[in-house]
Design brief:
The chain is an alpha+beta fold. It has 11 helices and 13 strands. A hairpin with a 4-residue loop joins strand 6 and strand 7. Helix 7 packs antiparallel against helix 8. The radius of gyration is 26 Å and the shape is globular.
Length: 485
């Protein structure tokens, strides 16, 4: 057999291909040529210099014991539901933030538990199969599960939410998104000095946690995801051959650079918590892709590309995590028990996005993030309206719909039921029935409120949006003395 080497230029990469005969058929294999990675996000010189030893510090017995405890799969019949970050309840969000900070402050291991795990992503001995090839998605799926297991050691109910950045990408100014506020990631420009991760220090001399959102590149869009879903195989959407506009790893690289700070250099990006919520979203996109493969008759557990590019992405190359190999990452065992809730959308009767931090783009029936100012203004207005109503004595004890003297409906989605005492005001839990009354009023106007409620009941029955409510028993308020509109 004659060895034939063909130089193929695939910008910005180059490979050599070796064709050969096997069982009467012509096949090809890749000759080991290491293509360069995306230079803006992979600072490989950082890991080839003498300084790289700082990432490979010797692990203590306690380090190894704790890291090994994270290699566990969800228990049989366990369901871990991962939601979009902004659809978490306030309690869920605060619990998630507390757990991350608990890891950050747990110094029972080297560095602390958060940074020790993040350092796995930085260690050259662990991350060789993490970037620049088809093992990227599987490696990060395993790594994401390790972080989720670490958080569940603090709070057993936690799952890692995902950040659907497509809802920010469609904003006029994504840097103004409410996601970059004290309620979520904290500020996106400069040192992070508000929110749950304020004043975090990062190891290895990187200083305080910093970001520079919207400085370079862009976020993933819904169009990017749609183009990616048009393809059939993992090799079609991965390095080394996928084009940038449907290469899932490249699209993810863009978001790293867009966030900036430590996230800009991918190998050290895990020291910023944004990393995990971004990768939860990337993993969700891949899971949606795999489900589409199954519907098309393709087995995703056998879909490892023959042409994998970098030698570290060869099927049997060490993954760098435990004793796993690169091809182990496409196994179904890593997704068992894990369920992603679909992204919020407003293709429903009420055009709602199920979050106070999202709004509906009615032209596209798509949810987009509110800006920080929009959320703050609405919160202040709701608070002022409620305070004013209490002072004027217009608030009643019964649940239902109320109108103040200025003809403005009170937002029952903020305060559904209040009891006015001499000494205190007690806020009770939101009621979906009360929200239905208020939302019907908003949609159908003041004159047709009763008719609108009847029509809305029929629509809800048809689409089964209110499965947990007995709609036939909902009271239809009469004689509300609604103002003429």
């Amino acid at each position: 057999m004659v060895l034939v080497c063909i130089a193929v230029t695939v910008e910005p990469q180059g490979v050599f291909i070796h064709p050969f005969k096997k069982n009467g058929k012509t096949e090809i294999e890749l000759i080991k040529i290491e293509p360069s990675l995306d230079f803006d996000v992979h600072n490989e010189s950082m890991f080839r210099s003498p300084e790289s030893a700082k990432f490979e510090f010797p692990l203590t017995k306690a380090d190894i014991q704790w890291l090994n405890s994270l290699f566990v799969l969800p228990a049989k019949n366990e369901r871990r539901v991962r939601k979009e970050y902004r659809t978490l309840s306030e309690e869920e969000r605060e619990t998630f933030h507390r757990a991350i900070n608990a890891l950050k402050h747990d110094k029972s291991v080297s560095l602390n538990k958060y940074d020790l795990l993040a350092n796995i992503h930085s260690r050259p001995s662990s991350n060789s199969a993490a970037h620049g090839g088809p093992a990227f998605l599987g490696w990060h799926r395993v790594f994401l599960l390790m972080m989720e297991n670490a958080l569940r050691q603090v709070e057993p109910s936690i799952t890692i939410p995902y950040w659907d950045c497509t809802m920010d990408a469609h904003m006029t100014s994504p840097a103004q998104s409410a996601i970059w506020s004290q309620h979520f990631f904290g500020n996106g420009l400069g040192v992070v000095d508000d929110g749950p991760f304020a004043n975090w220090t990062t190891p290895f001399g990187f200083g305080l946690l910093k970001r520079s959102v919207s400085g370079q590149r862009r976020l993933i869009t819904k169009q990017d995801v749609a183009r990616l879903m048009e393809h059939a195989y993992l090799g079609n959407i991965s390095y080394p051959y996928a084009k940038a506009d449907y290469n899932l790893e490249q699209l993810h690289n863009n978001v790293h650079v867009w966030v900036g700070g430590l996230m800009k250099n991918i190998e050290i990006g895990a020291f910023d918590p944004v990393f995990y919520l971004l990768h939860s979203f990337i993993d969700k996109i891949w899971e949606d892709f795999r489900r589409k493969q199954i519907l098309s008759g393709i087995d995703p557990t056998r879909d490892y590309p023959k042409f994998y590019g970098r030698s570290s992405h060869a099927p049997l190359a060490p993954m760098g995590l435990a004793k796993l190999t690169a091809i182990d990452g496409i196994s179904d065992i890593w997704r068992e028990g894990i369920l992603y809730v679909r992204q919020p959308d407003c293709r429903n009767v009420l055009h709602q996005c199920n979050s106070d931090f999202l709004k509906c783009d009615n032209d596209k029936s798509e949810c987009v993030s509110k800006t920080r100012d929009e959320y703050q203004t609405e919160t202040e207005a709701s608070s002022a309206m409620s305070d004013g109503a209490i002072k004027r004595g217009l608030l009643k004890q019964k649940t239902g719909f109320f109108v103040n003297k200025s003809n403005s409906p009170m937002s029952i989605s903020v305060f559904t039921q209040l009891r006015v005492d001499n000494s205190s005001v007690t806020q009770r839990k939101k009621s979906r029935k009360d929200r239905l009354h208020f939302d019907v009023y908003k949609k159908f106007g003041q004159k047709d409120w009763t008719m609108g409620l009847s029509r809305m009941k029929s629509l809800y029955r048809a689409f089964q949006f209110m499965k947990n409510i007995t709609l036939s028993k909902l009271p239809v308020k009469k004689n509300l003395n609604l103002p003429n509109g």
